[in-house]
Amino acid sequence: MYELRPPYTQSTIDVANALFESGLVEWANPNYSYAVKQSNFGGEPNDDLYDQQWNLSKIRANRAWDITTGTDVNIAIFDDGVDLTHTDLEDNLLKDGSGNVIGYNSTNRGSSDDPHPDGGDAHGTNCAGIAAAVTNNDEGVAGILIEGRIMPLQMSYTHPYYGSPYIETIVMSSMECRQKVVF
């Protein structure tokens, strides 16, 4: 393996392509470098239950937070709904310019824009907290995406199987909320 550093007048991809097309090498690939914006977050969160969140140390969240805190990241929570008034979630919900939560309810039990849970199960709320709870607010838990935004998407668990109805929910919800979805 050899490393070439072409003059700045040539693009790296052009040099790699020319080298490969010459037949002198079997393989040529540019090695791009990317600058990473450093996060201003330092230390450990002051949230009451942070010490009980073994998952954050397991995934080395502190190291990740040194690089990014999830700025400009929206995360969709496909579940039984998210408590839109939860104090550890309220400020991190994705909202439009008028302050309305951007979300979707794919069940036939509520309006299409109210992804608030309508049962006793708080699973979606818990998942939203793990993903992006408000962090450093002296209460509750710390979210993995400290500055991420939560887009709650309520789906029904009444089907006897998990399959295409849920994929359809993902596609329709993302279209309704004008968000990109990565599978």
Biggest pleated sheet: 3 strands, parallel
The neighbouring-strand order within the major sheet is 1-3-2
DSSP helix fraction:
10-25%
Averaged pLDDT, please? 80
Give an overview in words.
The chain has 183 residues and is an alpha/beta fold. The chain has two domains: 33 residues, no CATH class; 127 residues, 3-Layer(aba) Sandwich (Rossmann fold), CATH 3.40.50.200. The chain is built from five helices and three strands. It is elongated. The protein starts with 11 loop residues before the first helix and ends in a 7-residue tail after the last helix.
Question: What can be said about this structure in brief?
Answer:
With 183 residues, the protein is of the alpha/beta class.
Reconstruct the topology from this structure.
Blueprint: H1 12-21, H2 54-58, H3 61-67, E1 74-79, E2 104-105, H4 123-132, E3 149-154, H5 164-176
Parallel strand pairs: 1-3, 2-3
Which tags fit this structure?
183 residues, alpha/beta, Rossmann fold, three-stranded parallel sheet, 25% helix, 8% strand
